[in-house]
Amino acid sequence: MGTGTSDRDDRQEVAAAALVDSGRLLLAQRVSPPVLAGRWELPGGKIERGETPAEGLRRELREELGIETVVGARVGVEVPLPNEMVLRAYVVELKSGVPVALEHAAVRWVDAAELADVDLVPNDRAWLPALVELLARG
Ligand SMILES: Nc1nc2c([nH]c(=O)n2[C@H]2C[C@H](O)[C@@H](COP(=O)(O)OP(=O)(O)OP(=O)(O)O)O2)c(=O)[nH]1
Question: Per the database record, which ranges form the Nudix hydrolase domain (predicted)?
Answer without folding.
Answer: 10-133
